């Protein structure tokens, strides 16, 4: 395994790697195998990832001659550690992490965007606690917003706040990387405000929290499909077949809303009380990550010192695999 350059990254890496080893983690290493022998693909139980779950449930991977093993992780950090340890051929995640991994000598590239917000659909929001019924966004930002620092959620929160004329210098961040704990802090009034993803935004709103601002229409919430450089070079046709199957999964979800709900309830963290009422999003066609968004996130990471070297778009994205 290659050396991880960032001390902050290394510390987190070692802590979670030890935890994974104690718990069993992901078994085995990533093997170079022909089609239908196995693709280990990391995934998180999020509604953004539903086309991948649908492709598995509906047999689209099998029909394409692939044997895909979806390895579910409880947190993005666990998934990133497994990817860094070369235990996966690819994974689903946010657009920021592949840049950070790449800058720390983990050879991965994004091959497709699988989801993004639209003008009528939010995916992340900043919410006021139920015991804060009247305070403004600017007031609550000064008092504190629970968030995971140096993550895509912090980036999104900064962008949502800037859209409302509130700078990072006017904002106090309360560290809470664990999302269930962050939700609990919000609902119990331990944090004046918090940044949360769907469907927790809807859940919190129905329990008395108040949405202050969301990411609808901002086009900054890409989630992507990522593969290792080795897998892309050695098995390009498997990658193309994988993306085609995921695309079929998205079409299936869009055309079968009731079946989509069943798949979501089975594989995603849908809070109790929303399993029958949550409106699932429409899933777009797969596309390449947006270059302007990549550049903006990269600039933010450089400014914060999370990435310390120059990187080209071609280091981050692999073209030529979309169906």
Labels describing this entry:
single chain; 323 residues; alpha/beta; D-Maltodextrin-Binding Protein, domain 2; 2 domains; five-stranded mixed sheet; 10 strands; 42% helix; disordered N terminus
Outline of this structure?
This protein has 323 residues and is α/β, with parallel strands linked by helices. It is built from 14 helices and ten strands.
Describe the protein's topology.
Elements: H1 7-23, E1 39-43, H2 50-57, H3 60-63, E2 68-72, H4 76-84, E3 90-94, H5 97-103, E4 108-115, E5 124-128, H6 137-143, E6 145-147, H7 152-163, E7 173-175, H8 179-187, E8 193-197, H9 200-206, E9 210-214, E10 223-228, H10 229-234, H11 236-255, H12 257-267, H13 291-304, H14 313-316
Parallel strand pairs: 1-2, 1-3, 6-7, 6-8
Antiparallel strand pairs: 3-10, 4-10, 5-8, 5-9
């Amino acid at each position: 395994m290659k050396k991880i350059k960032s001390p902050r990254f290394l510390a987190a890496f070692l802590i979670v790697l030890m935890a994974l080893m104690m718990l069993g983690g992901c078994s085995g290493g990533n093997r170079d195998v022909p089609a239908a022998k196995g693709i280990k693909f990391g995934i998180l139980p999020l509604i953004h990832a539903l086309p991948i779950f649908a492709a598995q449930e509906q047999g689209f991977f099998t029909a394409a001659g692939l044997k895909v093993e979806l390895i579910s992780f409880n947190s993005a950090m666990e998934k990133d550690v497994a990817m860094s340890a070369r235990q996966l051929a690819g994974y689903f995640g946010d657009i920021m992490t592949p840049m950070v991994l790449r800058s720390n000598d983990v050879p991965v590239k994004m091959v497709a965007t699988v989801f993004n917000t639209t003008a009528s659909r939010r995916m992340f929001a900043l919410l006021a606690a139920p015991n804060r019924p009247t305070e403004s966004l600017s007031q609550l930002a000064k008092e504190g917003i629970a968030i995971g620092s140096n993550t895509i959620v912090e980036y999104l929160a900064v962008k949502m706040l800037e859209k409302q004329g509130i700078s990072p210098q006017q904002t106090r961040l309360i560290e809470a990387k664990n999302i269930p704990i962050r939700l609990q802090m919000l609902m119990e009034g331990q944090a004046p405000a918090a940044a949360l993803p769907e469907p927790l935004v809807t859940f919190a709103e129905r329990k008395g929290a108040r949405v202050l601002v969301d990411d609808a229409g901002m086009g900054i919430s890409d989630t992507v499909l990522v593969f290792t450089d080795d897998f892309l070079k050695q098995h390009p046709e498997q990658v193309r077949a994988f993306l085609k199957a995921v695309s079929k999964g998205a079409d299936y979800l869009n055309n079968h809303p009731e079946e989509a709900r069943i798949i979501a309830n089975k594989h995603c963290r849908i809070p109790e009380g929303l399993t029958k009422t949550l409106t699932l999003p429409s899933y777009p066609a797969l596309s390449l990550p947006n270059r302007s968004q990549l550049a903006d996130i990269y600039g933010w990471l450089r400014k914060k010192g999370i990435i310390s070297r120059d990187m080209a778009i071609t280091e981050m994205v692999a073209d030529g695999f979309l169906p």
